[in-house]
Amino acid sequence: MAARGSGEAVLECLSLFIVLHFFFVSANFFKPFNVSYDHRALIINGQRRMLISGGIHYPRATPEMWPDLIAKSKEGGVDVIQTYVFWNGHEPVKGQYFFEGRYDIVKFVKLVGASGLYLHLRIGPYVCAEWNFGGFPVWLRDIPGIVFRTNNDPFKEEMQRFVKKIVDLMREEMLFSWQGGPIILLQIENEYGNIEHSFGPGGKEYVKWAARMAVGLGAGVPWIMCRQTDAPENIIDACNAYYCDGYKPNSHKKPIFWTEDWDGWYTTWGGRLPHRPVEDLAFAVARFFERGGSFQNYYMYFGGTNFGRTAGGPFYITSYDYDAPIDEYGLLSEPKWGHLKDLHTAIKLCEPALVAADSPHYIKLGSKQEAHVYCASAHTDILNSTWHRSKSSCSAFLANIDERKTATVRFLGQSYTLPPWSVSILPDCKNVVFNTAKVAAQTSIKYVELALPYLTDISTPPHLMAQNEGSNIRTSWVTVKEPISVWSENNFTVEGILEHLNVTKDRSDYLWHFTRIYVSDDDIAFWEENKVSPAVTIDSMRDVLRVFVNGQLIGSVIGHWVKVVQPVQFQKGYNDLVLLSQTVGLQNYGAFLERDGAGFKGQSKLTGFKDGDIDLSNLLWTYQVGLQGEYLKIYTEGNNERAEWTDLTLDDIPSTFTWYKTYFDAPAGADPVALDLGSMGKGQAWVNGHHIGRYWTLVAPEDGCQRNCDYRGAYSSGKCTTNCGNPTQTWYHIPRSWLRASNNLLVLFEETGGNPFEISIKLRSARVICAQVSQTHYPPLQKWVHPDFIGGNISVKDMTPEIQLQCQDGYIISSIEFASYGTPQGSCQKYSRSNCHAPNSLSVVAKACEGRSKCNISVSNAVFGGDPCHGIVKTLAVEARCVSSTKVGSFQY
Ligand SMILES: *[C@@H]1O[C@H](CO)[C@@H](O)[C@H](O)[C@H]1NC(C)=O
Ligand SMILES: *[C@@H]1O[C@H](CO)[C@@H](O)[C@H](O)[C@H]1NC(C)=O
Ligand SMILES: *[C@@H]1O[C@H](CO)[C@@H](O)[C@H](O)[C@H]1NC(C)=O
Ligand SMILES: *[C@@H]1O[C@H](CO)[C@@H](O)[C@H](O)[C@H]1NC(C)=O
Ligand SMILES: *[C@@H]1O[C@H](CO)[C@@H](O)[C@H](O)[C@H]1NC(C)=O
């Protein structure tokens, strides 16, 4: 294993990481411990545990981002990091393994361990994940006789070899729990139950084989299969869904696990942006633990980016933000992150009672209201209302599953008000510390703003800087045309239409097909007489087809196995016909992926000729894989001079199939950097040779977005979408570690045309933060953790709700834009005060918060010098601005 080490030079600059470096050497993060399970929970070191897990896929971030992502997960109350293993990243060529850079899985697992978190490794090796080809290397489909994911010897041999490779690697690196490492759980296969029926009896055999093979590797920690109702006895079958409360594993000896809690959704080019409201997400999680669940994983906790051509298909975008609690750029998504943190604290307060009980005690409270009580002592005590906190630990969840109405219920002699579609958590069976529908956490509004003028040219007067004001990309672009059709000796000519992936092996998205069509006088006369034109007709095609006649792009077809009817105009004599077939992410889901392929299927014809249709599969075609610029690697620093770049001027009409190149300086500071490609069409982008990903300015439908997102009721990915009528993605993450201070090489390949002069570098930050908490909210969760409260010595009455505000790292609160203690109306950035308003609201909040990175204010009359309106529940609403605490930020990697 030659891996690791890359990137360590950067880490060593920072003393904080020297500690981590130390860990790399010693490699033991925990005292070795055993992991097993019973019907209730995972048993870690002899103790049942309630576990919160967060999904982070290591190659969707850079190694330089990993420590911060892991730290933010831990701070958010996550106990376990979950990741897939990406086979096609680790074995791009059969037998040649790669474990470096973003694929340095050992370093990732060690960082998780060093932070004190556990790890759930989902080896698959089929992973779906909206990842190219579901994680399978494309060479796998070339193995003679192979059928993926069934009782097929060639497939099983390859799968076993890779799974064993990973398990052995983890064992060699001492990363399993019994070796003092963080790995507590593994996964074999992935949602196989969804497609098992397609394989007949072979599917059943395969499940048994996969389980036997996995367990036989002697990893020493439990294995799970998700969505696998026929998982064998020694494998835990787990749930993946928006809701998993009430899930029943296939044996009463197995615990209830939720491997994928979809806290958002993925996005396609031209799609709307999905959002899952945190009130509903928290409801789903609380219901899961309420009804006996013990392990829950957010899919994703951080989604990240599909760099390069790793996005799956059909048509998945480069961003894999997923509406996760940590956004694509590594910033907190608020209030999602904060509200879940509160939820996790509340669940942890219940953990002693949750693990003590073998199952919850159910109490019906109303037609759509119910309680589940976890108690170490006998159930009869609870029913009899004779139970006391001091006697034993008891925790309760009170749920109102009514989608519309608030309900008031009685529980153990007390009255509780439950908002619709919510769960209240009572760690002591008496006091509500949290309700899933009451969000106290702050909201953060992110801005994507033009970066300040470049660092090295800071002395240049602004008017001399750029024709395109404000952009910090130098406006001198150079350009080179990509040849249409065949461009190298690597071309070959055969009769017929070949299967796209059989030719490209996915080394490029692009496959050129070239032929010549002879057109006679009779054909021309026939078309004129009948007022018809010939057409390229193909039964079925994916993902993008571009048709060129005599060097001109005359049409494009976009779709997933759609029919093509593309009218063409020919001249008399010989005509060059070029079909450019493109993939935009290979299929990542479904049975028989090895047969799915790309390009064209069925019959391909030229219709409308006088003597009948021309069968394109009878013609001689010349094939060329990829682009000349890709082949020459003109996007790299070493090779970009191999292209004959010429200056681009503003008057040039930007043309199709063009490469563009420029240099830019990194923006100062540490804020995440985005490339704004909203002015471009479709293509790919590279910075300093790093492939940022595909870009495409495809616009989402005008309609189908919801103006108001109602959290109540069952979520599905079409609910609460945004961004209608706008391009699905215009900003592309450039990780800081891929930049140097100045002269960063930016190269784009553009297919359809756009204006590179409008490309800019932006910085992303949370500039506005808001929070709104009323007197009926619960006190901050941190306070409940205090031992005095748990011991019953502090009364709820002594605690008041609070607003807590915090700017992102490196930012401070510069001003309070709005503050009202009373009955303020509206929402973040649209607050207004009403008649009931404490006149000193603004000054009180400003005094507590301005100039600080974080602050908190009690929501009480005492703080605001009296009661602004008697007998009415008061609310404090605050909107604050955050600014960078270092005006001239130093450049950081
Ligand atoms: C209920 O509580 C009373 C008073 O403590 C006790 O006498 C009685 O036995 C209890 N009943 C049950 C069913 O536990
Ligand atoms: C295509 O390949 C043939 C045969 O190798 C070669 O003669 C021809 O020059 C190639 N075409 C281009 C454009 O390089
Ligand atoms: C792809 O190539 C393989 C042999 O290399 C062949 O068996 C298969 O039929 C080809 N697929 C298609 C769709 O042509
Ligand atoms: C709670 O109060 C009791 C009596 O006042 C005292 O004996 C006990 O130590 C206190 N417990 C804690 C955790 O402070
Ligand atoms: C609120 O702020 C005060 C003063 O800064 C601090 O002492 C207290 O711990 C804070 N409360 C919480 C819950 O953070």
Description:
The chain is of the alpha+beta class. The chain folds into 4 domains: 15-333, Glycosidases (TIM Barrel, Alpha-Beta Barrel); 444-482 and 632-758, Jelly Rolls (Sandwich), CATH 2.60.120; 491-626, Sandwich (Jelly Rolls), CATH 2.60.120.260; 765-893, Jelly Rolls. It is 18% helix and 30% strand. The chain has 18 helices and 40 strands. The protein has an 8-stranded parallel beta barrel, surrounded by 4 helices. Strand 15 and strand 16 (414-418) form a beta hairpin. Helix 8 (278-290) runs parallel beside helix 9 (336-356). It starts with 7 loop residues before the first helix and ends in a 9-residue tail after the last strand. The model is unreliable at 1-26, 386-391, 453-471 and 888-893 (pLDDT under 50). The structure holds 2-acetamido-2-deoxy-beta-D-glucopyranose (5 copies).
CATH topology of the largest domain: TIM Barrel
Q: How many structurally independent domains?
A: 4
Each distinct ligand: 2-acetamido-2-deoxy-beta-D-glucopyranose
Look at the structure and give the CATH class of the largest domain.
Alpha Beta
Task: Offer a quick outline of the entry.
The chain has 893 residues and is α+β, with helices and mostly antiparallel strands. It has 18 helices and 40 strands. The two termini are 27 Å apart.
